[in-house]
Amino acid sequence: MTSTLPPTTTATGRRAERPGRERPDERGSLALLAHQIRYEQLSFWRNPQSMVFTFVLPIVIISVFGAVFAGSEGQDFFFGMSGLQYYTPTIAAVSVLGACYGQLAIVLAMRRQTGVLKRLHATPLPAWVYFAGLLVHCVVVSVVDVALVIGIGRLYGVPWPADWAALALTLVLGAASFCALGVGVASLIRNSEAAPAVVQFIQFPLVFISGSYFPIHSEVMNNIAGVLPVKPFNDAMLAPFAHDAGFQWKELAVLAAWGVIGALIAVRSFRWDPRPE
């Protein structure tokens, strides 16, 4: 006498039946990316303190500079430009640096320390979708920041950029490069408490030696800063505003190289789990 036995369900079969563990197709990945971008945007806009420091600080700085340099003519100290003509693109560049490098490195360090990244890594969300969502979010924030700074500068008489395409490419490439550097630095930070100090320790010297807050006339200092990421970004942002110039390919190449360096560090060193104390 033969008996009919129910089919055996193996562990492999059970895993295959769980839709949550399936790899998303291309259309599903795009939907996940859109969802991740929306999540990052909502998290940012629902944090008033983050918004204030991201947007209000550059507006306050450029407004103060506008009141100080309003009506001034071109000066040798500013390489033939007026004070506000010089500071509008450099303050815009600093705002991009802060949004894409500083805030991102601190946020990732905090998310790792609190276990958010560990839980996220256990989900079916592909890593590239997560980081692409962060990148698009940072680009959106940077565009808003730069638009606000340019708008305030225009109110004080600073002309519109001569080449919008060059400005757009510089902005996107700069945001991507600084995001990569932010992820790379976050990979090296041991705990979230140290994140602000590590970020500022790197950012402040770069900002000052790169001429963001005052022009640097030392040839030696300019040569040193020229191979670092901030000064090439400043120069590429300055060109469409101040010199009626377009694409600064040399500066953009240096910026892209630093983005590649940051990405390589991130790929080799990024950790999803908090480091044990």
Automatic annotation (TrEMBL):
The keyword Transmembrane helix appears for this protein: yes
Entry superkingdom: Bacteria
Annotated InterPro entries: ABC-2_transporter, ABC2_TM, ABC2_TM_bact-type, ABC_2_transport
CC terms in the record's Gene Ontology section: ATP-binding cassette (ABC) transporter complex
A GO biological-process term: response to antibiotic
All residue ranges annotated as the ABC transmembrane type-2 domain in the record: 49-273
Membrane-related topology note: Multi-pass membrane protein
Record-annotated membrane-spanning stretches: 51-70, 90-109, 129-152, 164-185, 197-216, 252-270
A GO MF label: ABC-type transporter activity
Biased composition (Basic and acidic residues): 14-25
Biased composition (Low complexity): 1-13
Pfam family, one: ABC2_membrane
Stretches for region Disordered: 1-25
Subcellular compartments: Cell membrane; Membrane
Keywords: Antibiotic resistance, Cell membrane, Membrane, Transmembrane, Transmembrane helix, Transport
UniProt keyword annotation of Protein biosynthesis present: no
Family: Belongs to the ABC-2 integral membrane protein family.
Name of the protein described by the UniProt record: Transport permease protein
Taxon lineage: Bacteria, Bacillati, Actinomycetota, Actinomycetes, Kitasatosporales
